[in-house]
Design a protein that fits this description.
alpha/beta, 8-stranded mixed sheet, 3-stranded mixed sheet, Spore Coat Polysaccharide Biosynthesis Protein SpsA, Chain A, 12% strand, 440 residues, 11 strands
């Protein structure tokens, strides 16, 4: 007798039969089981909700800029412009330290217009050659007037002379506006025996706050009295902000060429006469002391509308005023404490205003100021206040100024030498001669 086929679905039917059986008890059990299952699933979904997995991980994300190349440096388009005079190697030794500190602290490009001789240019180039990629663009112009050309310009002026140690090159401070081209509209002049300890752009920004009539800014010391100098110590022409464009327009210094070609009077003759009286029989003022400063004093005293005083922050000088007794010391000194021991600020534009040093001026030390014997005297007040600062900046290596990026075309030094100089009055003569020829 044949075996019957096995029905594999039979267990399923048995279970359903039980759950959906004829009794009410089985049906309630079935629906209770279904309801419990649905409730459990809903509860688990709400309690353990998960976000979809993505490729980002906010808890460990590193900011994009740390993973991408650094953006190029932004450069200030307006450079800080300096006009300097360095005549002799000794002068350039001092001036080189000034240049170094400018490059150490300046946050903008630097333009240097340097009136110098061969020895000074040679020494400065030897330092600048050590800097291949400065942090900011640097441009240097060496202006090389001959001794005779400077002598001739003074001769054409007709009345000035000097017995000061700065000599004939020192008098060129009165002619910077004639030596530099008209494209250079303003500049900072600084004697070589100075150095910055803060950003030179702060000094440059002083131009933005001047009156519209101001053409000359320098430190004012009205408390000083020196009749033998015609009181020329009441200013210091060692640090000056010069609006060269205004000085050109007003024709600061006289010339026989100007007198020949037009009737526009220069400013200086009347200013000198008002201060010094009539010149000697040779037409010269041989009674003026302090070199160019004596003549600058006559100009600004005659035309005070052209002048504004410079903050002592930028002229912390060792001569006469003993750096106002400010110097390195307790780092926690308060403004009130600093003001309490200041000297040489009473009855000056700085009275009641704390001196916050930004430029140190080591004048009256004779010779190359870095070699002054007082720097090795542990009891000397100037050495106590500023000797450490001088030694730090002197020892700062030129190669450390290579802080730019290799290959960045904006981080370089450009140097140009101008071997012959034509003063502005000579240009006028040449222009008039050309016009006369064209009229023929």
């Amino acid at each position: 007798m044949a075996e019957p086929d096995h029905d594999h679905s039979q267990p399923q039917h048995d279970i359903l039969a039980v759950l959906l059986g004829p009794t009410r008890r089985y049906r309630l059990l079935f629906f209770s089981l279904i309801a419990s299952t649905l409730f459990f699933l809903l509860f688990a979904t709400e309690t353990f909700r998960f976000e979809p997995i993505s490729n980002s991980h906010p808890s460990i994300t590193v900011k994009n800029e740390t993973l991408e190349p650094r953006p190029p440096l932004k450069f200030e388009t307006d450079p800080v412009v300096f006009s300097l005079i360095m005549w002799s190697e000794d002068s350039a030794i001092e001036g080189a330290l000034l240049l170094k500190t400018i490059l150490m602290y300046n946050t903008r490009p630097s333009d240097f217009h340097i009136i110098c001789d061969d020895n000074a240019e040679r020494l400065l180039r030897s330092r600048l050659d050590l800097v291949q990629n400065p942090l900011h663009h640097v441009r240097v112009w060496f202006y090389k007037p001959t001794w005779q050309s400077m002598l001739d310009r003074v001769e054409r002026e007709g009345s000035i002379m000097t017995e000061h140690s700065a000599g004939l090159p020192g008098l060129m401070k009165l002619f910077i506006h004639e030596i530099l081209p008209p494209t250079v509209k303003k500049s900072i002049y600084i004697d070589t025996d100075a150095l910055f300890i803060a950003n030179p752009a702060l000094l440059w920004d002083t131009f933005d706050s001047l009156r519209s009539s101001t053409a000359i800014v320098m430190a004012s010391h009205p408390e000083q009295s020196a009749p033998e100098w015609y009181h020329a110590s009441k200013i210091c022409s060692c640090v000056m902000l010069l609006n060269l464009e205004k000085l050109r327009h007003m024709r600061l210094m006289d010339s026989s060429i100007y007198r020949e070609y037009d009737d526009f009077p220069a400013l200086s003759p009347e200013a000198f006469k008002a201060k010094f009286g009539l010149p000697n029989a040779q037409g010269r003022y041989d009674n003026v002391r302090l070199g160019d400063q004596g003549f600058w004093w006559a100009i600004v005293d005659y035309r005070p509308d052209l002048f504004e005083p410079l903050s002592y922050d930028f002229e912390v000088t060792s001569c006469l005023v003993e750096t106002y007794l400010t110097g390195l010391g307790n780092e926690l000194t308060t403004i009130e404490e600093e003001l309490s021991h200041k000297i040489h600020t009473k009855d000056t534009p700085q009275e009641g205003i704390v001196v916050l040093p930004k430029l140190l001026h080591f004048n009256c030390l004779n010779g190359i100021y870095m070699e002054w014997p007082g720097w090795s005297d542990l009891s000397n007040g100037l050495n106590i206040r500023w000797g450490t600062a001088l030694r730090y900046h002197s020892g700062y290596k030129w190669i450390w100024l290579n802080q730019g990026r290799l290959g960045n075309s904006k981080q370089r030094i450009d140097i140009i030498t101008l071997p012959s100089i034509i003063f502005e009055d000579e240009l006028m003569m040449r222009g008039n001669s050309s016009n006369a020829l064209n009229d023929r």
